[in-house]
Fold these 4 entries.
Entry 1:
Amino acid sequence: MKKGFLLMLLISCFAFFTFLSSASAAGESDFTKAVNEKLKEINYYANGSAEIVNSISKEAEITKVVTPDDPETKENEEEIDTYKANVVVGHVAYKLKRDSIFYIQKHEFFYYDVDNQEFLMLGNFPEDEEINALFKEYMDAGHKAGISLTSNLLFTLFVLLAFLAVPMLIMMFHNKAIPVPMVRNNSVM
């Protein structure tokens, strides 16, 4: 009876969480999709783990260097282009997956030009106070990056098992190697 109940509970939980993950994937924004595509370039990125912590969407003035200055000449050939576009600026938390069991939490800031569908840098917004304030808030918050709690617990369990299992195995095999006392045929009993 208990096994049947536990099996039904497990199946219903699996179905419920599968539905939740598919429903959340359908509601992804363009920014989240673009961030996931960008993060796929990173080694060990746990696919779909990007979570937007804080973001703003606005029309901002973007400054880009079209042609860089040639350092070998005296005159300045640098061409700068300034235009307005809709941008999404977001603080994104994501996970790196190592050895399929250890997860490392990371935080990064992304600037996405929605109109041109490209990622920018903070230097492209020199005069925008709102974007600079969001970045300073992110820097001051001191978000912790590192190994998650479950990964730490799993690693600790492996170390403890190694310290306990190796001596246990040695004791088991060592005890089997002890010879049984021999009884001689010519001995008196």
Entry 2:
Amino acid sequence: MYKNANHHGCNERLSESEMCYSRIGDDCDDEHQQVAPCAVTDWSSFSPCSVSCGQGITERRRWYINENSHHDQKCKDVHLIEKRQCHGAKSAQCDTNGNKERCMSEPVADNRCRGLQRYYYNKTSMSCEPFAGNSACPARGNNKNNFADKMECETICNNFVAQSNDLSCPMSPWSEWSECSVTCGRNGIRRRMRTLLNNHRAVDQYHCQSLPLEETQPCHLSPCPPTDCVVSQWSTWSSCTGCGQDAIQTRTRNPVRRARNGGKRCGPLKETRYCQTAIPC
């Protein structure tokens, strides 16, 4: 019922709400029930490139619908973060001076970081290494050679070294995406590949290793059809156990394929009977 809120002296409620629950029961199929413990949201959009100049990292995320899935061993292979290489919007105008200072300056550890792990570029070994003691903080003053994680360090510094040595990392075009790794269901992966081209000249693969040669993405197909259980043949009857009229013997069979997606379950896997020929006690 609606009331005229402008009416003089009106103090009645104009709307009401109450809690309600959806019915969960017969409409929930087996496929939905099986994936529910590890169910995730759709992927977010990819984040902006981590650098405005040169090569950086972009990532997207998804989240468990059920927070308890973080502690469920069944969900350990579910990927919640996907990272890709990207190029900053101003890559065509890049200069390497900033990266040279970051990668070639002496690393300085700052002990005011409460144990956060960070990385620096070791120009001698030409590799990204963790600061000793997990103690370094983000860049302050001269503390330029300092990266949030190993991937950021390798992306920036390997790219800088390749540019400074007049190297390039020519790549073939990406291949078409592969078929989904599963024929039905939600937990498939598909891949695409590319290769490093040398164009009849030397290419230092070490300096190009930060460029991915393979990309993956999830793929979701229609629900899998029901699959009935399949069992082996019965074994031969065992020897009689006991004696007299109470002596029994058993036989067994094993599941060759378990039922899935609401298929017919396995029947009994063990049978027992009284011995047909009683053994005198």
Entry 3:
Amino acid sequence: MDPAQSNYTTTEKELLAIMFCLDKFRSYLLGSKINVFSDHATLRFLLKKPDAKSRLIWWMLLLQEFNIEIRDKKGVENSVADHLSGIEKEVDSMPIRDEFPDELIPDTEINSVL
């Protein structure tokens, strides 16, 4: 998630996750019935909301390509997902370097074979 996406509302983040999955598995999911279980009840009514942000309208248009049904499932009923969503990821504080001064590219000669 990039810094701009981390500022999204909870509804936008949940819908972003759905859009990410639909994009990754698009070829497998087109033409299939898709049931999405979420503990965020707002998602069910999102497709019927007439006055939404432009980003949400764009995502709703993309969702219409799929035969998708969003169902509400309380976190208590879905204990595995509830547990996994509560796990905090450790932040890797080691910076990523773009330059590697100690790394040498070997000088290779290519001999053509006739």
Entry 4:
Amino acid sequence: PPSRDSMISMEGAQAEVLMPSDGHPGRIESVLSLGHSTNHEGALEDDNLHEDDIVEHLDVIDPQISCVSNLTNAANSILIPPLSFYSRKPCIVLSCPPPLTDVERASHKTHDDNLDRHVEDILSKRQRFRRTMRGVWDFVKTRSQFITAVYGFLVAFWGAAIVLFLARIINLHNSNTQGFWIEVSSQIENGLFTVTGVGLIPWRVRDTYRIYKIWHYKRRTRKLRQEAKLPTLFDEDDLPDPVYDNNYVHVLSDKEQADLHYQQIQFMKSQTWYRPHGTETHRAFPINTALLICSLVDGNSFFQVILCGTMWGLNRFQRPPWSTGILIPASFLCGIMAAVFIWKGGQKTKRCDQVEARLRSALAMD
């Protein structure tokens, strides 16, 4: 495989993408760079914005990048807290599409640039399952996400063990021994849940506070605009911000607006799936869904705290069977549902038709 030095790195907000470089910008890079200035002072910032645009476009059309982003966002929300000494951003290595045969070259308009060929390959050959599985492998093979995958496997393994022992699919033909292994499986499962469910409570409480403030300002903005007889916002989840919108009409006070901006930036750093504002490729993330996700993650911690008290405060002879039978699934399902809503919310934000049309036009595809 090519070394990192021979590859072009595109740094996006949610992922870093590496691709073999041929040293010359293609059609996709040229079209997406038209919206950026080329003055010397803003060159570095402009390059970063340009790279982010490319990655954001790929996130919409490429199942491989989308899969890695979805899995990473779920892991960052439920398992991995934002800490300063490591990056939670995944690195995705894209391989070049296979070279065309002589027959294909004669019947197709080919592109020399690797990025152009990659995008053309995605738009002409969907192969969603294959690309998604490639994304799963990209996610698992990184060091931090490998630990996440091992954690998920252990949770599933010991959860299945509880079911197998309870249902006597694994029958030890001795009630005391059977109960002992049910207890061992339950305690291990409880310990795994405690690492995240209890250990991450400080971050979860802080993020819930931040999204509640954002949700509050959404409702307050709607109310104040109605009182001022202003038209309804085109997207109530994309709250106007004078930092980005020169035509902003003030309804919040300066203090409230500054607080909203601060909460959005900080929440976005912690919850990598959150998008406070719309772009050419994505809509703003639904605020109500964001609040629901944080509530479900809090529910995971809530049930886990009760489960810890039950598991460690009572031995297996004193503990009512229904306690673990309810609390373990409740804690587990809260985390699973949070991940599902992260995925669904992310899918809703993608402007698939517009992005695909823009890229097809850039490549002059039918």
